[in-house]
Known about the structure:
InterPro entries: AB_hydrolase_1, AB_hydrolase_fold, Epox_hydrolase-like
Keywords: Hydrolase
Structural class: alpha/beta
Protein name: Epoxide hydrolase 1
Strand content: 5-15%
Helix content: 40-55%
GO molecular function: epoxide hydrolase activity
Order of helices and strands: HEHEHHHHHHHHEHEHH
CATH architecture of the largest domain: 3-Layer(aba) Sandwich
Radius of gyration: 19 Å
CATH topology of the largest domain: Rossmann fold
Distance between the termini: 33 Å
Amino acid sequence: LAAARVFLTLMERLGFSQFYLQGGDWGSLITTNMAQMKPQCVKGLHLNMFSSSTGFKVLLSLMIGPYLPFLVGFSREDVHRLFPFFEKNVWDILRETGYLHIQATKPDTAGCGVNDSPVGLAAYILEKFSTWTDLGNRDLADGGLERKFSLDDLLTNVMIYWTTGSIVSSMRFYKENLKSNPEKRPDAKTGIFVPTGLAAFPGEPMHCPKSWAQIRYRNIYSYTFMPRGGHFAAFEEPQLLASDLVQFVRKVEKFCRTSM
Length: 260
């Protein structure tokens, strides 16, 4: 919420009264908050990571979805990405979120260590670029890092943290935001009504079907099953992400012209 206020203030000081937003990872939460705080300024919101609140509709769709997906608004691709649910959305998530538990509870413990060792910092950061690009990379000796990225690009990312000494503050961001139940915050109970475009990448650790996303995002203009790519979409597949963003903006602009 604080980060959203900072970015809204920045856009105001730069002289932009209306603008489009795009976000993934924490950026998806920050841009969503921006759209909730000042919807009159946000012409459209495009996300490549998104989730919905849990509830009866989600629970019911998990029970019926594997057998009668059309009854709960699932496509075949949704079924493929979601099920078996416990394997893909519980066990895999448990394997992949150890870092989150550390950073949400004791960020300085690990943070001070990696902030003092360039090799430790690289290992800590690059592990996620391996597994969250493709979970199959866990079985590769080199982690498959160079299948999508150049070593120069990866080193550049690590060096941003190393030269600024900012890894600890980036880890604290988790504790600051997760010290209480996120689903009880006001923004979790507030719908998003600005035009929204969603890009669902197959390598994203948690898949959110359109029928779930609609619970929170009430004005979805486009929902795209992306053909490839994972969590770091802008880094992995910049052209795919940019193309989906452009088609979303065109849809919004066309609707605005025809409704005037």
